[in-house]
Specification:
Blueprint lengths: L8 E3 L19 E3 L20 E3 L22 E3 L19 E3 L19 E5 H5 L2 H7 L4 E5 L4
Parallel strand pairs: 1-2, 2-3, 3-4, 4-5, 5-6, 6-7
Length: 154
């Protein structure tokens, strides 16, 4: 995998994949789906993939990580999904100025003010608790962003 330098698309979701350091030299990757690999503990390697445009990290659970600090240099990202994790802090997302689509549903995020600077954001998927806890931010970004509010599972 680490020698596939010209690879642009990679989907390895729902595996026992746990060490993503083998991806660090795949600088041509534009689309990466590693969702539902619950053994991944460190996402900092992803910061070296500067050409990424679409990234799915759903259901990784971030056993040892409660924030997305490892993604702050991915300034070409236009789509990011980090749903179904234990994320509490989305600090650093404001660096992702090209982000157009963001899915943060089913996390433990209490503050989404970081999103106020994402002027290219067109679509935001979040759960009703996060939506209800952030009325000022929702009001600020509602002029340019559409929301999909998901009710929590019972």
């Amino acid at each position: 995998l680490q020698n596939l330098y010209s690879l642009t698309d990679l989907a390895i979701q729902e595996n026992s994949f746990d060490d993503i350091s083998v991806l660090e030299n795949l600088h041509n990757l534009q689309n990466l789906d590693i969702g539902w690999n619950e053994n991944i503990k460190n996402i900092s390697t992803l910061n070296s993939l500067s050409n990424l445009q679409h990234l799915n990290l759903d259901g990784i659970i971030f056993n040892e990580v409660s924030s997305i600090i490892g993604l702050t240099d991915l300034t070409n990202l236009s789509s990011l999904s980090i749903a179904h994790n234990n994320i509490t802090d989305i600090g650093g997302l404001s660096n992702l100025g090209n982000l157009q689509s963001l899915n943060i549903k089913y996390n433990n995020i209490s503050n989404i003010s970081e999103l106020e600077n994402l002027r290219n954001l067109k679509e935001l998927v979040l759960d009703s608790t996060t939506y209800a806890n952030n009325p000022q931010t929702i009001q600020k970004i509602s002029s340019y962003c559409q929301f999909e509010v998901i009710e929590p599972d019972n």
